[in-house]
User: Fold these one by one.
Assistant:
Number 1:
Amino acid sequence: MGAEVALVGRGEELAVLTDALAEGVTGRARVVLLRGEAGIGKTRLLTEALARHTAGAAMAPVVATGQCVDLGTIGAPFAPVRRLLHELGQAVGETDLRRAAGSPAVLATLATLVPELRTDEPVPPGSGDYVAEAVERVIEALSQDHHLVLVIEDLHWADAATLALLRTFASTLRGRHLTLIGSYRGEDLGRGHPLRSVLVELERNRAVTTVELTRLDADGVADQASRLLGREVGPEEAARLVARSEGVPFFVEELVRLGDAPLPSTLRDVVLARVDGLDANPRAVVDVLAVGGVFVAHDVLAAAAQGRPLDLDAGLASAVWAGVIQPEGDGYAFRHALIQEAVYDELLSGQRLALHRAYATVLQARVDGGDAGPAVEAAAHWVAARDDEAAFRATAVALRQARRALAVPTEAQCGERLLALWDKVAPTTRVSAGEFMALAARTVNVIRISGEVRRAMRLAEEVLAREGLTTVDRARMELELGLAQVGVQGTEAGLRHVREAERLVAGLDEPDAMRVRSEALALLGATAVTPRRRPPRRARLRG
């Protein structure tokens, strides 16, 4: 069977993608969102469109891909953007990438995402909006002479900072020769998923097109199977494939590969068929890889596997030959995310805990050595390993990194995790995150200015419900709650909390109390002068 047979039943979808690529060459920036369930062929469609476009394009595309990774509730800030910028640098050269920055301030901001661009220039103060502006400037400059095709895969796993950047970037599209493509699983967008609100905004833009990939019908399944086998598939054989695959192209391919072997009874068995055919050593290697994620760098994998009774290189070679994984860059990736998920689900609880701890230990060593980049990933593995103390310390590092990278949404998520873990860890561990109320107030503040006002209100109410708060602490949180409530229930509802904050600290002469009272009075005064306007949103974060 050929690895890349002709696409089946995707004529209209392919036309949309190739048109968007062609328009990028002519100077009209476009965004295409590929929506479809796991295994439906989003990556395959994109590969085919790029191959066709490149074959006849007047301007050869510069393709850069960012892969979102499932790290639980908190993703590493700008993770796919880092990889995308790194690939752009490799394609056009570091010199051109630096030149595209245009100013030392922009270059310093980009250096927080791409270490190769390090500079002695300090990062300018600001917020995540400045990161978006810096990325936009570079893309705009590079797109003057290159047709940039920027791909972000698996947006349903995107970290909050990346989603915020995508919202800004896709809405402005300041590029001359530019095509932006994103893919996501529609079935994973449950109620309250952060991507949903971003998609609503993007779909208002006429330059944004959503392509829905649906399951193949019976004729499509038969056609795909025939092309894979190099012969016509009979009606009875086709009917069995349709019933087992349910029209999902990935499952059709896996079922066809089984040949005359008995057809698996469930789709999970279909996914695991290749894995189950592995010998003990490569299967053990695949198990280790699955805990690391869809993609794992070779050095991280080797370190996590160290001390285990397996032959890593031989196991990797066998798994690649069997089509379970594939080499990618400086590491290995599962041929499909469904395989990684199925293998991970098959592991026993004790196996998962031990392997998560192995990965966490490897990544934590890098964090302790001064590289804060893996802090979020290390924290995610510590959480999965059920080590609250280590998870707290790693998240505290990730919080500081998010602040340096101006990743406000990620900072908010890290703050929430630290607050949730606060009472579960020792006082000596808490020192790494500073004082509780300072963390709580700033976290509520950053959640609010990120636009998630109701979430900020809920957190403020949870903090106010804690026992042992001082009068000043209570006033501080009442002030935060009032600011958040203004955006949901109106000025008067919010000002009730502001007045309560002022009342609590009235007459107290300690600096923190005076600071809270000063802010409360300023807000009350501003509202009294302009009663129809909301109190001004504080632009700078308090810490």
Note: Residues 79 and 348 are 29 Å apart (CA to CA).
Number 2:
Amino acid sequence: MFGKSIPVFCYHAVCEEDGHSPETFAAHLDTIVEMGFKTISASHLYDICLGRRKLDKKYVVLTFDDCHISNWLNVVPMLEERGMTGVFFAVSDFIGEGKIRSKSDVPEILPIREAFIKALSEKDTSQFMNEAELKSLVHDKGMEVYAHTCNHQGCFKDFRSCGNFSADSHWSTWGIYRRFNPKLSVFDNGSAFAYNGFWPIFRKGRVLFKKRTDEERRQFCREDFSRCMEKIKEINGAKRQFLCWPWGHFDSLSMQEASACGFEGTFTLERSANMLGTDPMRINRIGVGSSKDAAWIRKRLLMYSNEAVALGCFKFFSKKNDIGRVLYITDTGKLSGGSRQLINSAKAMRSAGMDVVAVLPPESALIAELENIGAEVVVLDDFKNLFTAANFLSDLISEKNIDVVHTYHNRAVKIACIAKGLSLFGRKKFKLFFNRGVIYKPNPLAPIFSMIGNGYICNSVKCRDVLLKHGVPSKRAHVVYNSFTGGGRKPRRSVTTSVIYVGNSGYAKGPDVFIKAVDTLLSQDSCEGVRFVAVGLEDLSAYKDIVSPATLERIECPGYVSHDDTVRLLATSHIYVMSSRQESMPNTLIEAFDAGLATVCTDAGGTSELIRDGVNGFMCPVEDVSAISDAIKKLIEDGDLRKNMGRLNRKIVRILMSNSAKSRALLGVYSSYTKDEPKTDPLDIDTIMEE
């Protein structure tokens, strides 16, 4: 048979300045009295939960988080007037010294938000109850004061963007950055006790973010709880100590540390019954908003004083977007452009402090590189048997506690979609994204794939536009640009001016267009001392009918070379030429940018998203041999123009296409909800050019 339960209400500031008027609060108290409820202490509630006292009356607990000065000036007198008691949770770093104050001693009462900002940014804690007032609460007023951590530390729990740091930002932002700067980005916040969080690191005028490890958060909780308890014990002198979770956020790790520190009970913002058998480490509370009237209080008293109703009207806290481990999967073992970006994405995640697992075919060329960056590599022998592979992947996701799966190449997409379906049958739930780095027509099932998973991640706006034209919903297509992580060294140019093409012999890459452009240029100018290099072409005999033999003799063809050697060749060159007929966002263009090269490109795919014609490169119409030839000639003749373009291109890559930039962009997509606007913004290269 169901019995009684004890409602526990959670208040914050009670003042006109914060929108919660004392008159409304007084009406709440009067309603509690009229309904025959008696206020009890946290210690009394604890004893009832453990069966040491009987739940023989209609009890209620009133709690007040943060100890805003309005609690002392407005709340305490009203409680005393009605013979009621309250439980106050103090932020220990905000407990200042001084005398007991009256209303005349506090000429200006600030809303709780502004009070937090002043305390965090200016160390001005005058808007919170001081030590003398808190001690008086306990020893003169017969009320309770317990811990609310040292400074209510917040963190960026994910990378859902909240714009730039502004006067309207959440107050916890001042505790994360410590100093106001409108150029800094702000993200979705949460409790630093429950979330590892992404923390800013300032280097050379730029801000990077790194996820804290479980052990780092454990140590943070341990130190904070111990220091806070020591301070609160000086005030309350109690043997039994309680903790109130900031924002009501907690998890098993932080709960373990609270218990290890000696807290015998904690107050959450979960909702359920408080009665015999309730775990004192998870005491349920009902948050009271500033707009709630006495009628609302009456309804909650009726609901949560009845065990059956309180158990039915539950609300449990669950951590949202707590991404700690990402899995990348591809069925190809070749170091293609997509594979190179898989490696770069894994590097970006590792640099942000994330755990990375990669599922690859045996003898994959990616294994060594991924293992070198600290990724865990798991080999899948059979990608062709889709259902067997999907079961393998689903088991791995559960075993490794994977939060996000990011696929590269088609077969991996199908396997992951089946694994996503299996998650509906009680297996580990995860977010699923598909990489898209090409510009041609997608699989006819792409719209269905996008709905099974969480969407596509495209490497250019043009690439995304193609998906939208073929039925992929706008909300399921994001843009995250490719990245490149160079060695950080300045390129060492050869003395001889060098013009370089990097690609292959495929029609889409336009090698013939490059060769014709060189032929046109040489027909007008001998270009003495200029080198022309075509990386990726082994035999020029296929072009003997379209250009002169003398032109073919001038073009050096090292054939296929490794990625590292390609990067070294770019670093010794001066002008990069991309003559493609079809592209999305070629890796070699970004690598040329990083090497500080001036560029001549055809307006194919997303290339125009990186180049401002005549500023950091030249844009030419596709297959316009004359335009390409003229642009190369300008750059050969104007060394200063080459250097200026190269300098801008290097800045673009190092700032906007770095590991840090990609990790932030990827995690922004991984953190997104379906209701969010997709990430589609082009790179802000114009700002870089203005610096």
Note: The radius of gyration is 32 Å.
Number 3:
Amino acid sequence: MSEPHASAADDRVDIDLAAVFGALNRALRWLLPLCVAVGIVLAIALQFVAPKYRAESKVLIQTSESIYPGEARGVEEERALLDTEGVASQVELLMSRDLLRRVAQRLDLASVPEFEAGSTSLVGDMLVALGLSRDPGRNSREERVLKAFYERLDVFRVDGSRVISVRFVSEDAELSADVANALVEEYIDLQSSVKRETTDFAATALEPQIEALRAEVQAAQERVEAFRAQAGLLLGADNQTLDQQQLGEISSELSDARAAQSQAEARANLIREQLRAGASLDSANDVLNSQLIQRLRERQVELQARIAELSTTLLPNHPQIRAQRSQLADLERQIRAEAEKIAAGLETEASIERDRVASLTATLEDLKTQAARSNEQQIRLRELEREAQVKATQLDQLMTRYREADTRRNAPQLGADARVISKASVPLEPFSPKVFQITAIVTFVIFLLGCMWAVLGAFLSGQAFRPAEASHASFEAPSAVPAGPSFTARNVPAAGFGYDWGPMAGGAVAGAAATGAGPAAAVPAGAANAAAPGVGDEAARPAAPAPVPGPLPRRVAVLSVDSDDVAQEVTFRLVRDAAEEGVMPLFLEVRPDLGDPEAVAGFAELLDGSASFAGVIYRDAASRAHVIESGRRAIDDELAQSDRFEMLMDAIDHTYDQVFFDLGLIDDSLISAQILAMADQVIVASGGSPAGPELEDALSMLEDQTGAPVLVQTVKSDDARAVRSPDMAA
């Protein structure tokens, strides 16, 4: 079997759709009555099942409006409440045991029969007795009620929204609606109570903190005032220390004194300059502002007017005129003397201001020295003031939060972060069982399974397959090896072998009769005559062999003294005859000296572990027999002695009814000896040549070494009608 394979189209079988539909048609005889009976029984049985009602209530998760101070949330808190995880957390809260326990106590569900999980059935009692189930009586009544509650409750988030649906199933329609609504109401009340508890806890926790912080603020302020008094940093006007205030005042006085000094000196110098130059004193304000000088100026004006009057009648040297001029000169001297006094007064005033400036300057320097010394103390004072201010700010914040918490604590009601958008109403129609839907689905499933059973049986029995039809031209000369794994029997006609079957050797027949063994379904009868040459393929095919009484040989070894092809043809004939008798046979080719790299994987690859059964087993298109080729490498003694040989033989024996070994031309290899040693029957194939000493020696040797019955099968070649056709498919 080392020649190239034929095309894949010639190696396959076709599915017989007519046979498949025929199997389905035959199955309808029992499948339709079965489906009708099951549908009727199921519809009747569902009438006795207690109906169950389902009520649904829906809750929308949203933030409550900020009515009381301190209720406003930040952006992160809003996001944490309204995102997917936040809604999922609310779902878990709705299914919490504490919430369900409150609903059960509110509605007294323990008195409802369907919530009494302590009652058991006969099956439940049996499971408890066998230790396969826990005794429900060991649980408390509350635990049993909660377990039944959980089994009937379904809480989930509606996809793509912040809506939570609460569904409850009960045998009582009103009870299902009451439980769903009660669960939602308890959930809303729980949120409000949790907010109130949180507010109470916050207010209670703030009270001791406020008291402690108030004491700290008072102590800090006392430290500030004590340090201020100790350091002499007492505050005056405008929230300034006394040193700072005095420093400012002295600075202002010093500036005023310096200005007064400069002004007095300037006025005195002006008068002195006018007196020294003999100029008129009318431009000096201090001189003009003197009352004495003003009276002297008035007297001087009167004298000048008198002199002018007398000058009109008297000569300049007249005694009256001279007397008047003498008085006028005396008045001028008095005015200048008075101006001298004013200048001296201004100089005295400037001297006084100069002394004052000196005194104020000394005082200012002392205050600056004191201010420089008090800087460090002022830094410490400011630190104490900041500490006291921080504590005061903290106290104000805590007081604000406490007032807000106290306001919410005294509020009559706090809003929950959810609201009911749909209350559960009493359902009018039962939720289950749905008689029509359940009956239709179960009936359809049974019908589908029955059809699958019929089709699967047709495939497993082989009725759904038929040999692939191929033209005569496709058998003549295949041009390429197929792409996928396939198998080809060389020199074997599609409708029969191209050889005439001759009678068995007489000695072999006698030996078989003596031992009472023979090929039950594989070897043709010895009395069968060969068909006449020139007859068609159907005539050339020998009649079916008559079974020989005795046990069925499990392992049949076929070898030849003429050629490998003769052994192969005989083996295929035996395999197909065995398959026609209902036996599951295997054609196993064992050629120790065959090494064809172009061949498909086979028995040699099974021995060396490089291939599995699924990769080497193919099916004969003309029968239900399976085929394993020899493989790509020669089977040497090392492979024959491996541990895998016995393992493979055991696996094959457990899978197939008969195994036919094609050993080819007789040789002295170890693998052939092992197979002959385990064979239940040995067949020597002859190509029609007359029996000679070699054949007789081979028969004698096989009978002595194997201990199994040895038969001789003789075939005669008919070249005129032998058609070389590949008829095996994967």
Note: DSSP finds 22 helices and 15 strands in the chain.
Number 4:
Amino acid sequence: MDLPLVFAGIDQVDWSQLRHAYGSAEDVPALLRDLASPVEETAAEAEQELWGSIVHQGTVYTATAPAVPFLARLVAEGVRRSALVGMLGVIAGSVDEHDLPVPGAARGAVAAQLGLLLPLLADNDREVRRTTAWTVAQCRSAAGPDARAALRARWSAESDPMVRADVLTARALLDPDAAEKLCSAVLAGNEPAPVQVAALLVTADCGLPWGMEATARVTALVPLERHGFGALWEREPLQALTKALHTRGEADTAINVVGSALGRAVALRLQGSEHAQAAITEARWAAESLARRSRTAPARLFPELLPLLDDPATAADVIPLLRTWGQPAPEAVPALLAIAQDNGESADEALAALVYLGAPEATGLLARHLPERPRALAAAYRLATGETGTPSHTHAPGEDRTPLLDAIRVRLAAEPSRERRSVFDGGLAATNEPVYLSGLLAAWGRSARAALPELLAALPRHPLPVSRALATVADPQADAHVNEALRAQAGQGPSATRQSAASALHSLTGDAAPLISVLSELLAERGNGLDHAVTAAASLREAARPLLPLLHTLLAEPAQSRETVPAIRAALGAAALVWELTGDEQAVLPVIQEGLAWASHAWGQATVKRAAEVACLLGPAAEPLVPDLLPLPDDPELSPALVLVLTSVYPESDAPAGLARTALADRVLAAARPGSYARSASAVLTACVALGPTAFTDAQLDLIRGLADGDRRVVGAGLQDRIILDDERFRAEARKVLRTLTAGVPLSDSFRHHSQS
């Protein structure tokens, strides 16, 4: 190894002026030299250090590009070839550039070294060939004609199926114009399965024509994962195929592909194939992934999933989908009932699904098996409290809750278990049992009064959830003993439990004195729960006047005391309450302005939105804030907040702050992107209503129709088991908003059909 040549110029680089993930890059030259150490431990440690510094979790830094030539020369000299070529590929593929002087500099540095890397496409080691093909592909447009020629030559010479698959993918990425001819030849010929799978993925990714023959080929190859390409491409083939097809607007094709894969998985199971379970797992995951993108997928895929319920070995793959898709599935009820009456985790999952599906038998089953069904109890709680569920959820009229009420009473009276179970063994559900039991009773209100003795007995053990339940279950006139129990609880113990009991007492009797007392302490302490204390104070409305001196003191504190999210949120909540009680704009405007300034903070969007909400309360009095508001549209996520404030400050203006309402509508609708969080998506609709019907052109109304009735889900972020339910709620809300905006406007037959469905 010619080490002087490898490291020529390394000491001429001013590494002290360069940075990596952990600061100064002065350690990089020594690490690069250690890669060539004959001591394996030294070389391996240097490699790990470089992974963690110059390409930390895929991020590249100012020190990354200067290190690339030395990495490439080491590879050319035979040092840790596969690993270092892979590192170069990650560098080239990075889209997370930290303070690079020129965008794309790291990728360009790798492309400049391709002359040293391309010969490795013919290396004797198949892993080196595979990694090199992948790395060359990461250079994308920076790779020149020599790279394309080298890949063509490798394609002609390569016989290993896995390497051919990688070379095909690399060729398609670097030369999209040749992709269709290449893939057509592969799919029409007798190429090995890995190459066929690669051709199918390229066909979907590159927007090439997809016919019935391609779907049939996918079905024959299921499970596709067994023909995988290794970890470098980072994709699950079937899921990636359907995502690509759906993204390019071919929802029906994507659904057909998944449906065919599910049918193939069922057939393999019936045949007793060794690949059956892998096929089921792969197809089920693709179905779940597609359902979170496509609104029509669940209803169309359910018939293909239902046969898997008949086998205990595969039922567990399907039950969670029945629970989270929010799709009526009466044909699944008999199989679920059979499973739910058994024992174990599957029985609990099945009963939870029955609860969500509104099966009339679910309540009785839960009552009989309450201690062994924590997930089903959680499902009943979430549905009753509105945490989950969509407009399609219905409940049997006249449903008899008495058996479940009796079971809850017995469970509340039982001594709490001392067993500490793993979260993965139902531990979290067991820990939350008092919350679920009390929450169900709270949702039922006065009809659960029979449980008052058990609730009162449980109050010292579980003061927070039980207090909330007593507030709705008790009759303040007939249950004076409940009032006294809450009053006693509000006067003792930790502040959180006192506050909960005092809030319940206020809700029941209107007596705010105990809650004022607790909140006064919390507001004076300025502790970790300050923002929660302010929220509780806001619930008192006019009765919160005794707290005004403390709230004014909070607002008058210097901005430096509000550098954390809880602190600024507490101040904004205090500003909203002070405005409501006093109308003192001079006291609240500076704090709102502070909140708006969080637009420049990392993760500051939620704070800006809260500040905008408070500004809306002021109406025209918030006009001094307009200069701080106008830059907000630079972030599409904040456009709805801007619109809400401007329309409250200038309610009668056709051009608030000089911005035409139609132009504001454009900005708001640009924020309605697939993959949004539920609250962000809903904010778009609220802003549309605030702008009013005259703000929208026909084209803009068509965009809202797409939000309401397009196949692509708008809500796509958040808890995975909530995405579909949240999107269905958003969809219903969007339809209502559209009806509001088009009132008196003739609707097309197509839209009228959608809005009535």
Note: The beta strands are 19-20, 23-24, 59-60, 96-97.
